[in-house]
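As a warm-up, study this chain.
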Amino acid sequence: MTTNEQYGTSRTARFEPVLIRAAEAETTSDPSSVMTLLADSGATGGRLTCYRSTFARGALGAPAHLHTKASELFFVIDGSLRVLVGEEITLLEAGDFLVVPPDTPHAFAAAPGATADVLFVFTPGAGRFDYLRLLGRVMRGEADPQEIKDSSERFDNHYVDSPVWREALAARN
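Now compare it with the structure written out below.
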């Protein structure tokens, strides 16, 4: 068995090494977070998309949603992140790692009274940078929220209803 067969990889999606220096990384923001764009799918042969989000104290992250094609990985660098996975809410602390598989409803926010610094990875890559830029424009009032809804297929970001998440958010107020 070759190494490629053993690890299920293919030589067809080759890409050059990706190095993003902190001082040169593009950032986008909304009123409660700053997103540092690290590597989008175009730069990684479609294998992954990666960015870092720094959330203000108690900031909302994303409402309940799912991805049909990509797994979403969370690594908490600092602070605390409250995460919905399916119907369960859990608290991730600095150093915690979570993988949410495709078709699994999830949501996240900085824990009440806490900030959160989180590394996000999508695999396979999903061309998310344009979505994050759009999200920032919508949150700042520079774009119509309907654009987010209209882009769900393009960005593999499908919003769903979660009574569990709604109740958790209502309880924090």
